[in-house]
Amino acid sequence: MKGLDARKAAWDVIQAVGGGAFADVALERIFNLYSFKSIDKGLITELSYGAIRQRYYLDCWIDYLGKVPAKKQPPLLRWLLHLGLYQVLKMNRIPPAAAINTTVELAKTHHLKKLAPVVNGILRSALRSKERGLLLPKSNNPSLELAKNESLPLWLADELINWKGLEDAKKIAKAFNCISPIDIRVNRLRADLKEVKEIFDSCGIHNKVIPNCPYGLEVRAGVGEPRKWPGYEEGKWSVQDRSSQLIAPSLGPLPGEKILDACAAPGGKSAHIAELINNEGNLWSVDRSSRRSKKILANSERLGTKCLQILVADSNELLLKNPDWKGFFDRILIDAPCSGLGTLARHPDARWRMTQDKIQQLVAVQSQLLNSLAPLLKSGGKLVYSTCTIHPEENSHQIKNFLQSKSEFLLEYEKQIWPGEGDNGDGFYIAFLNKLKNQ
Predict the structure, then answer these.
(1) Which UniProt keywords apply (predicted)?
(2) Which of 86, 240, 249, 344, CA to CA, is 20 to 30 A from 17?
(3) What CATH superfamily is the domain 242-435?
């Protein structure tokens, strides 16, 4: 049956993520195991990522249409129903008959033969509801409605409404469910924006300049694998979200300075700093993971950023192991480990991984990093703290608490970037701090 292999692959990804795997890792594994054409890879990505992203919404439909609640269904059946329901309810380009027939066929041929009539019945009921314009039953709880309609954990829907009010919360939640374009940053050491744009144009890769990103180009998602685009192997550009492209310039790095990137892997921001100082300076890129540090090295070699010194270490222990680093650095970037709540559009499984307890653990990690690294900055030096989250406790509250305990630091500015506002990309936070002289 046409399209069955691609749908089976998507189902495998959904199952793997349901069992705890990361979506990007599960998807890459499938692509490495089987030889799919680019068009099939695009379909597999859309089906798997879409169904994972819409998990709660699809569960609500199973609860509404089925006799057994979604979470009590056998996992194999639950994830197969997600695959079928996503196509029926969310994808207009796939004919409903094809969506239903292929899903039922997968049930028959992959250990769910006796439950194939259940699959058929639920999917056809969903199609009838869609054709009649019927929606899920409404509740009087705004948070529950937001969580259900935009497929969010209830705690996150609650928080969004508390932070931004209901209307803005809806905009942000909708942005989480949009397929993000692919943003790239041109490497000024190897090329310029005009050159890369012309290369893309000549190859039929539709692109446009990103506002307020001097080296940024936007490419529509679904046009192939970026690593195979012209200029990638030659190090002329990197994939980097437009919000993330603001971090290194905010540090204001200058040639000849001593700079620390304290949580550097996979190395995108280190490379950007090196590009901005034209490889003239000393840049230490630190990460505690040797595996992730290898990515910094590979990235650096491809891009030609020769001023990097890669160090595998715990940034909290840098002063202990290098006492002469007290007051040593002109600038420090702490792109801290965080909940990643600003990147849910790109990471469909992240919303289901994160919990309020995990966020509190991350807040403690971030606080420790700030306090451990502050002594390494010289008087008059600059520190940038950034995250890819929108949670105030990890961002503005974190910096407020730090400043209350560190009188020698002054907040120059801070910026919270919210998804769904204007031409914004991912949600990010940036705080720029000065360390006062003679303190």
Answers:
(1) Cytoplasm, Methyltransferase, RNA-binding, rRNA processing, S-adenosyl-L-methionine, Transferase
(2) 240
(3) Vaccinia Virus protein VP39 (3.40.50.150)
